[in-house]
Structures are given as C-alpha cells and as structure tokens.
C-alpha cells in the first residue's frame, strides 16, 4: 500500500507524481550520500521538491474535481483528495525546512 500511495498511482495525477517523485528522490539520495557535485545544489533540490508537491497537489485536486467519468470519481476520487492532503502536509514541512535552512528564520 505504501508503494502504491507513494507513487500516487491511486490518484489521477499518478504519472506526474510518481515520475517526478522518483527522479527527485534519486537526486536527494545522492545528496545524502554526499555526492560531491550535488552538495552545492541542496537549495535547488528542496525547491524542486516543493514545486513537485505543489504541481502534484494541483493535479490531484483537478482530477478530483474533474473526473473523466462518474466511475472515476467513485473509484479514485477519494484517493486524489487524500493524496492532495498528504502533499499539502509535505509542502508545509519542506517550506519550514527551506525557511530555516536557507533563509535563516526560526519559528
């Protein structure tokens, strides 16, 4: 279930959410493994994660509010809404990290 949910395959935005999430995580794991050339791009990695989550949230909300068929709304609409909610919570966490780490603000 975690793998399905993580890639977003249960919501209408699964393609973007899953592919972007995978690419960003590959880069993030390289950063955490202390790959030299990635170390100077930490701010951009965090920014790309925030951007990915924002676009994924908007796509999930769109697929929730504009299902292709009534069956899509019944079968997958709840997943789109839950996925959007989870991504909003992640956006909040990454914004907090970005503010503290790169803007030097506490709070």
Mean of residue pLDDT values = 80
**Topology as a string of helices (H) and strands (E):** HHHHH
The number of helices is 5
Low-confidence stretches: 1-8
Span from first to last CA?
34 Å
Amount of helix: over 70%
**Biggest sheet, in brief?**
none
Count of DSSP E strands? Answer: 0
Which band does the percent of strand residues land in? Answer: under 5%
* Helix-strand category: mainly alpha
User: Could you say which overall geometry the principal axes of the C-alpha atoms support?
Assistant: elongated
Radius of gyration: 15 Å
Pick out its properties.
mainly alpha; 80% helix; elongated
Describe this structure in words.
It is a single chain. With 107 residues, the chain is mainly alpha-helical. 80% of the residues lie in helices and 0% in strands. It has helices spanning 2-7, 14-32, 36-39, 42-65, 70-102. Helix 4 (42-65) packs antiparallel against helix 5. It is elongated and about 50 Å long. Residues 1-8 have low confidence and may be disordered.
